[in-house]
Design brief:
Layout (H helix, E strand, L loop, with lengths): L1 H15 L2 H35 L2 E6 L5 H8 L3 E6 L5 H7 L4 E5 L3 H6 L6 E5 L5 H26 L20 H9 L2 H28 L1 H6 L5 H34 L5 H6 L5 H28 L3 H8 L3 H11 L16 H12 L4 H26 L2 H4 L3
Parallel strand pairs: 1-2, 1-3
Antiparallel strand pairs: 3-4
Helix pairs in contact: 1-10, 2-8, 2-10, 3-6, 7-15, 8-10, 8-12, 8-13, 8-14, 8-15, 10-12, 12-13, 12-15, 12-16, 14-15
């Protein structure tokens, strides 16, 4: 145990001197969530508010005398202008600074005075904040549609129940925690597993291929320390690095959510129950055996590589193998079953979704633990077997 601890301390000090490892383990996890929840959230809210408060310049072509036109004219935040008949509505929106152009059909007013439907076309750009502008205009049009419909029905001597003979009261049995957990429960492991992998990747490359380049690996292997204990010391540091990156990510996410305060309103209070200590503990208990596998896998590739650069070129594409099951885990129709519980990485994503939504089935979750522990064991055995071969360690 003393030898393992000595190797762990020695490699830990070397890792702290590695700028790339510090960036992967500390800087990225501490920065990524404040940027996502803080920076992007702030600018998104700011842009939405700006679009909602913007005075919309709307052009009207062939505008009739109609209560709808009066409603648009009296609507706060709208600036209307009449355009000549035959004006190119698309050109007005694209090149003349108008937010929207409404072209009325010539028979618009006559159809509405009768029992028909008045036709108009709304020209706008959906890019940028154009979708919000469209919705603001459509809210006025829908209100007018409702008033016309109600008037026509009353004139016929009926009530609104005449056209709405069935009233449905939707009662969702899923709790808010289950709904949010289903929506973002698969996204949380996506972030943390990627950060855990990158947090372990640079120390693993440095402790294998990096030591080869520096010529210190041979010195370490010729010492009296058994090879298994040297590998255990290295793996322990890599596992700690990966979990440390994941822990910092969880901390920074919590701090970022708290800093958002009133800007995210009820969302923070709804997400709060998801991040209970028990849920976080269960998530990290799933992450721990996976990190052992990551460490063993990365250490093996690092020992195999001739140089730091070659190790990077071998390991970096492996990230794609992680993305695929994580993306499947975010699909709403992919559920945690006894079959999917045996698929590495996908099982963590699905189990995390169940944990954070508060809807855990312990049978499949137990299979997840067994699968991950077996995977960690296989990775460790493979690492020690390959690392004991000089043809692997010192291949030319």
């Amino acid at each position: 145990m003393k030898i393992i601890w000595a190797v762990f301390k020695k490699e830990g000090l070397d890792t702290l001197r590695d700028r790339r490892a510090i960036i992967a383990m500390i800087v990225i996890p501490m920065v990524i969530f404040p940027v996502i929840f803080g920076g992007l959230g702030f600018f998104a809210i700011k842009e939405v508010k700006k679009a909602q408060e913007k005075v919309l310049k709307i052009g009207l072509i062939q505008a009739p005398e109609s209560p709808l036109v009066d409603s648009l004219t009296n609507q706060e935040g709208f600036e209307l202008s009449d355009l000549p008949s035959g004006t190119d509505a698309k050109d007005q929106v694209d090149n003349n600074g108008l937010d929207a152009v409404i072209v009325f059909n010539e028979s618009f007013a006559d159809e509405l005075n009768g029992t028909g439907a008045g036709e108009l076309s709304l020209h706008y750009r959906s890019t940028g904040n154009g979708g919000i502008s469209r919705n603001r205009i459509m809210n006025v049009i829908r209100d007018y549609q409702t008033s016309v419909r109600e008037t026509r029905i009353k004139d016929l001597g009926y009530t609104l129940d005449f056209i709405n003979p069935v009233k449905v009261d939707f009662q969702d049995t899923a709790t808010q925690q289950e709904q949010i957990g289903e929506a973002i429960g698969g996204f949380i492991p996506y972030l943390f597993i990627i950060l855990c992998f990158t947090g372990a990747m640079y120390p693993a490359i440095d402790l294998g291929a990096g030591e080869k380049e520096r010529g210190t690996l041979e010195t370490l292997l010729t010492s009296s320390a058994p090879l298994i204990q040297i590998i255990l010391g290295k793996l322990a540091l890599i596992v700690c690095s990966g979990l440390f990156a994941a822990s910092l990510s969880m901390t920074s996410m919590g701090l970022a959510m708290m800093s958002m305060g009133s800007r995210i309103g009820d969302i923070s209070s709804q997400i709060g129950p998801m991040l209970q200590p028990l849920n976080i503990l269960l998530f990290f208990s799933l992450l721990f055996p996976l990190t052992i596998f990551f460490a063993s896998f990365l250490m093996t590739l690092s020992f195999f590589a001739k140089s730091f650069k070659e190790a990077q070129s071998i390991i970096s594409p492996m990230m794609a193998l992680i993305f695929i099951p994580l993306i499947f885990g975010m699909m709403p129709w992919v559920k945690l079953t006894y079959v999917t519980a045996a698929v590495p990485i996908l099982n963590i994503s699905l189990a995390s979704k169940a944990i954070f939504s508060g809807n855990v089935e312990w049978g499949p979750v137990a299979v997840v633990y067994v699968s991950l522990i077996a995977l960690a064991g296989i990775g460790f055995v493979a690492c020690t077997k390959l690392a004991s071969k000089e043809s692997i360690l010192f291949r030319s």
